[in-house]
AcrR family transcriptional regulator
Amino acid sequence: MPDQSRRNPQVHQAILDATWQLLVDGGWPAVSVDAIAAQAGVGKRTIYRWWPNKNAVALEAFLARARSTPPLGNPVGLAEALRAHARHFVDLYVGTRLGTLLRELIGAAQQDPELGAALREHWFEPRREPLRALITDGDADLVLDLVFAPLHYRLLTGHAPIDHSFADRVVDAALLARSNPRESRSQADRM
Amino acid sequence: MPDQSRRNPQVHQAILDATWQLLVDGGWPAVSVDAIAAQAGVGKRTIYRWWPNKNAVALEAFLARARSTPPLGNPVGLAEALRAHARHFVDLYVGTRLGTLLRELIGAAQQDPELGAALREHWFEPRREPLRALITDGDADLVLDLVFAPLHYRLLTGHAPIDHSFADRVVDAALLARSNPRESRSQADRM
Amino acid sequence: MPDQSRRNPQVHQAILDATWQLLVDGGWPAVSVDAIAAQAGVGKRTIYRWWPNKNAVALEAFLARARSTPPLGNPVGLAEALRAHARHFVDLYVGTRLGTLLRELIGAAQQDPELGAALREHWFEPRREPLRALITDGDADLVLDLVFAPLHYRLLTGHAPIDHSFADRVVDAALLARSNPRESRSQADRM
Amino acid sequence: MPDQSRRNPQVHQAILDATWQLLVDGGWPAVSVDAIAAQAGVGKRTIYRWWPNKNAVALEAFLARARSTPPLGNPVGLAEALRAHARHFVDLYVGTRLGTLLRELIGAAQQDPELGAALREHWFEPRREPLRALITDGDADLVLDLVFAPLHYRLLTGHAPIDHSFADRVVDAALLARSNPRESRSQADRM
DNA sequence: CGTTAAGCGAGACGGTACGTCTTGTCTTCGT
DNA sequence: ACGAAGACAAGACGTACCGTCTCGCTTAACG
């Protein structure tokens, strides 16, 4: 990987802008390295110099638009924080270009382990981490998954709608699970 | 779509077998229509005559191997059924070829709506439907999502391990949510 | 190399025509496999299926135009035949598109041994062979080189003009050499 | 073109040496401006400052190695001089790195008129000029071509071997042609 | 003696061509 | 008539090279 300091920031931005424009105009299928290069007025080599493939470029273009995402100006408590997060997710990623792109990135990551790792590092974890800090007792990752998983699951499979009501009920379930850890069933069939 | 009755069942099977073999040998990237045709000793035309694209072929090959999946010989109750299902999922789809393929199919479906619909119809719904029947009160789809979503979410993102313990705790959370619907928080901030 | 009989002759011809057209419009630098494919309305793959590279395509396009070359309806004798050939060369290849292409092909052959072999087989040898048969005494290849070499040498280096007069004098020299083999110098300094 | 006096002679030499080394190691295909720059430990800019392109660099590297070429310590006569030249050519340029490079330079010149002109000026003409002075009667350039053309022609086309015997016979033919100008045929068919 | 203009190493950049790959359609055979 | 074989158009892939350019550093000439 070449020296980052020699990178031309205008070119960098032009590539991300071009990628986003292609996404807006033609969706994921319109994104190819050739197309990005043409749209950005850039040589393909320049793209491959800084990114391993188009997935990485698309991820960065996505993150640049999504970075402003996490809300939570004044977190009063876990419940409020989770609810805000869940509703925020619904607002930003359900039925939006950003949401479609998120779906497609997660999809592409199933065949691109590097993209998967980058998504975890730059997308999932930055959103989980501040919330994890609020969960002092119980399995924080379980609770977070109980919130995030249903939202993403429906986003990816589309088997049922996603709205604020669903977000709220998912958060309720997660909170219940935290406060009431596994008394509901016998220990007998534990594996 | 041509006359189903004229279809040569041996050719049909050879294509599915070849697809599976390619999957086993080289993973999803090794699967191309050309490769399937060569492996099966079949013309590409024959494949396109019966399937719209390679995703559909792979889905069918997957379903053929996965069909035996649903357990539950004698369902004693919702809790048992959910737990059995969740653990079954862990056994069959975590760290296995089948699980990788499931990931890749869901991934491919993000850009192939037909594949998404087929997955819902032939994979997700057949597994949800018998369980849904057991959930008499509350939002059945919510409860099912609380079980299935975390499992699939971790399968797709790989951000945390999936084992029987995780499966059990997910089921506990879902059961809790069913029996204790949203009393835990005020109605005030409902949207 | 695939089965020749399955080749689509229209596609074959379209590729040669496109190549020639590019040559006429933009000269050798305008010829690229991409450009040929675009001009012919053909996939690049189709070109690479039948030719190893653009040199081979250009050679075939050249040969198709040059095939009609060898004259000599009624060869009366070696002298007449050589003179006709030499003048014919001047007429067809000096200052013409065909001549420029011949130069460029010979030039390209310096880095493409396959092209060199193809040129020898399909261009040089077919022109030498009928003349060689007329040279019954002496070293036929030497005589032929004494005719052809100066013409090609000037074509390639451009250090002096090529006209009918030059062609005639070259032929004279070659005929002299044949009829008067090496009496002109002592055997002493033979190596 | 910048000020020659400020040129760093070590850099100049390093570039020529690097070019030659690349030629020796990988042949003409290994020579690229990038490769020369890397091999010489020099910026590409420095190369383009002093040469128009890689052909010019290669030509200079060639000339530096070939400069010692012309023999002829004590020219006793035209016949001796021509014979010495022709045999010298065989010794130095047939089956040698230098000969291959000469072929490739002449080849490249077919698409690079500047290289062609430079070759004529710095390679061909310096070798022809001293010999031309010895040819007092007849067409000197014709005689010289009758010697040089067959040697280069076989070098470029490879259709027949080049050895001392061939060199001698070519010289004989040229001498014959000089002493016996065109009496051998009628003036009738002159054009 | 300092400043200033160039040479220079390094390498990013736009552009173009390469040769390979895959997709989905279409054609040619043989059975 | 079906199926194998595979040609075909389209176009993306990732690499190579070209020739221009922009950085800093050093180095010589000139003020």
